[in-house]
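To illustrate the input format used throughout this study, we show a single complete record. The first block contains the structure-token representation of the backbone; no residue identities are included at this stage. The design step must infer an amino acid for every position from geometry alone.
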């Protein structure tokens, strides 16, 4: 069979018709450890990080990995060791980041619904910044910080009202979204925050959406944010850092987002032109650091011809890979072994879950039969971290590949783990 195309930035390669990730043969890995199985490439993650670092060369910057994309401890440990901070959105993420060796000062805390307990824990850890999303949250954080006995470092998340031209569920910078403080209220909100005794203004922040494949929404958002910075600083409130959020897209299906270095060279042209090129820049990338570093290996259980459609039933499902059913998202699906002579046919690749929404790919031409192993591509981000035990399915094992070495970074659930916190009447 012909060798399928692979997305950019993966460290995947067919060698002698067998799919490898770095130096590791994926068919072999599936046969040793079973499926479904997530496999990540360390080199792909570090390459993605290096692209940002190239864009930031000679500038003051802090990359805060948005850990919701993939919050497995070893992945966090890798980024912590590489000098990254973390963008967190819950007390659970705070605890995970610290357990993985994060430097608390490099942690920023985003999200519209922080609880008092989470604020207290983050103050206790000594995080670098709270990205505050409403006036009501400012008041609560001020109170909590006064009780705690410290001034909480804050930036306000601006809603720049810019269309990121992405899926509506992952677009966050429009007026109608729940995120951030409306553009026209931001200057006033900074004046208010600056006189709160429990708060210390340190920055400004925006995040306009995810899987953005074009530089222009970023450049528009930067202009809108810098207009605000001009106005806020004219009122005598200094901002140590400017945080441009995350959102840069990856290649799922021939998508061509700008590479991180090219995007940042463009953004710095704007920042330089507007006199902010020497300001400390923070970013919160998630997907673009890990998305194309991972695959999910799954075994074909049955080929099921149907009246209208043929189905390829695999052992991974929407609980492992929720993006297709949730966002109608496309992930490439390829056989790991292309030596077979099975004829190709059009199939829907579906999982065993009892829902018609349990599909991983529709109308795919695949030359496979029961027992074959498929790789669902670009599943390093928002896959395992969004997974569940629905249908009482065990969550998969995860392996991080480093050259020739596959490291198990998470054991497959044992079924009894699933009810460990439950009690019979
Ligand atoms: N910063 C904030 C405040 C965010 O809300 C997000 C993502 C990020 C940074 C990281 O964005 P990224 O660089 O990963 O695009 N589950 C969806 C994506 C949800 C994104 C939520 N916020 C998906 O699978 O497409």
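Output of the design step:
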């Amino acid at each position: 069979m012909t060798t399928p195309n692979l997305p950019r930035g993966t460290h995947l390669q067919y060698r002698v018709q067998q799919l490898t990730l770095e130096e590791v043969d994926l068919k072999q890995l599936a046969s040793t450890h079973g499926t479904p199985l997530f496999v990540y490439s360390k080199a792909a993650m570090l390459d993605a990080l290096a692209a940002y670092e190239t864009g930031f060369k000679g500038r003051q910057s802090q990359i805060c990995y948005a850990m919701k994309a993939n919050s497995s401890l070893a992945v966090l440990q890798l980024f912590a060791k590489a000098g990254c901070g973390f963008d967190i959105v819950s007390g659970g993420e705070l605890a995970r980041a610290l357990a993985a060796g994060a430097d608390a000062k490099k942690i920023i805390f985003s999200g519209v619904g922080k609880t008092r307990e989470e604020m207290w824990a983050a103050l206790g850890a000594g995080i670098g910044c709270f990205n505050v999303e409403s006036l009501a949250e400012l008041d609560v954080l001020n109170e909590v910080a006064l009780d705690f006995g410290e001034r909480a470092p804050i930036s306000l998340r601006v809603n720049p009202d810019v269309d990121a031209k992405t899926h509506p569920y992952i677009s966050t910078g429009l007026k109608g979204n729940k995120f951030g403080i409306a553009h026209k209220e931001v200057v006033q909100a900074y004046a208010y925050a600056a006189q709160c005794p429990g708060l210390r203004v340190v920055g400004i922040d925006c995040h306009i959406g995810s899987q953005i494949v074009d530089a222009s929404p970023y450049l528009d958002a930067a202009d809108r944010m810098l207009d605000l910075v001009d106005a806020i600083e004219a009122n005598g409130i200094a901002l140590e850092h400017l945080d441009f959020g995350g959102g840069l897209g990856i290649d799922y299906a021939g998508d061509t987002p700008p590479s991180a270095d090219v995007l940042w060279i463009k953004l710095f042209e704007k920042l330089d032109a507007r006199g902010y090129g020497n300001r400390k820049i923070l970013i919160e990338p998630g997907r673009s650091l890990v998305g194309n570093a991972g695959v999910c290996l799954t075994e074909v259980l049955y080929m099921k011809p149907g009246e209208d459609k043929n189905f390829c039933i695999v052992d991974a499902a929407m609980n492992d890979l929720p993006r297709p059913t949730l966002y109608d998202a496309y992930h490439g699906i390829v056989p790991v072994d292309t030596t077979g002579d099975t004829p190709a046919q059009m199939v829907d690749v579906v999982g065993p879950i009892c829902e018609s929404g349990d599909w991983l790919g529709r109308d795919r031409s695949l030359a496979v039969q029961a027992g074959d192993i498929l790789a669902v591509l670009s599943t390093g981000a928002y896959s395992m971290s969004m997974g569940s035990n629905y249908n009482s399915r065990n969550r998969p094992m995860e392996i991080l590949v480093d050259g020739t070495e596959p490291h198990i970074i998470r054991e497959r659930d044992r079924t009894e783990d699933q009810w460990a916190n439950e009690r019979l009447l």
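Structural context for interpreting the output: Residues 216-234 form the longest helix (19 residues). Residues 66, 69, 87, 110, 170, 207, 210-211, 245-248, 284-288, 323, 327, 382 surround LLP (CB under 6 Å).
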